[in-house]
Specification:
This protein is mainly alpha-helical. It has eight helices and no strands. α5 packs antiparallel against α6.
Length: 201
């Protein structure tokens, strides 16, 4: 498996001769594209058509549960099974400054794949597929710039699936209670913006 990991990394990783424009795209995807996760979560909770808002907030709640569980699992796995990043091993080329912590599974990969799978399972097929494409782009870019191994991304995808499964089980058991508590917290915290009509009630 480690030999396959090294071979795939060699195929994907950029070199000093790689096109600058492609490296710029990769750096944007690797650094900034992940912010689509909080932006969509906040946007879907605060704004939307009146007859869609309950569905959107259920999606956000289930996605948040999945993300919390998946990121906790990723952190636990990285502590239990530490794996050096490519640049720590002196393997390939690195174009992005990063701390030399454990690489498996990828936090970026875990977050974006959990998010994409949540939309695929609980929103719309098209939105899930679009986010999966974005997730693949982020996964590729993190390997391309030399801060992750390909298997780190596969690990993130699998942990994301586990997070969505956990979230669905929790929602089946406690969804009504969780939704009610979150609505009460939201109405209390955003009382003024709700009254002003800046956000959806």
């Amino acid at each position: 498996m480690e030999q396959l990991n090294h071979m795939l990394f060699t195929w994907i990783n950029a070199t000093p001769d790689s096109p600058k424009w492609l490296l710029d795209i990769a750096l944007f995807l690797a650094n900034d594209m992940i912010f689509i996760v909080p932006v969509l979560i906040i946007g879907l909770w605060l704004w939307g058509r009146h007859h869609h808002i309950a569905f959107q907030r259920e999606l956000v709640s289930k996605t948040a549960i999945a993300l919390i569980f998946a990121m906790t699992c990723a952190k636990t796995l990285s502590e239990l099974f530490p794996h050096a990043r490519p640049f720590v091993e002196g393997f390939g080329f690195n174009f992005l400054h990063h701390s030399p912590d454990s690489s498996f599974p990828s936090d970026h990969g875990t977050a974006i794949f959990t998010f994409a799978l949540a939309f695929l399972f609980w929103h719309r097929l098209w939105s899930g597929l679009v986010l999966l494409v974005i997730g693949i782009g982020i996964a590729w870019s993190r390997v391309y710039v030399g801060v992750h191994w390909p298997m780190d991304m596969l690990g993130g995808f699998l942990v994301g699936m586990l997070g969505c499964l956990f979230s669905q089980l929790v929602w089946n058991l406690f969804g009504a209670q969780i939704g009610s508590v979150l609505e009460k917290i939201y109405r209390f915290s955003f009382a003024l913006p709700i009254r002003k009509g800046w956000v959806q009630e």
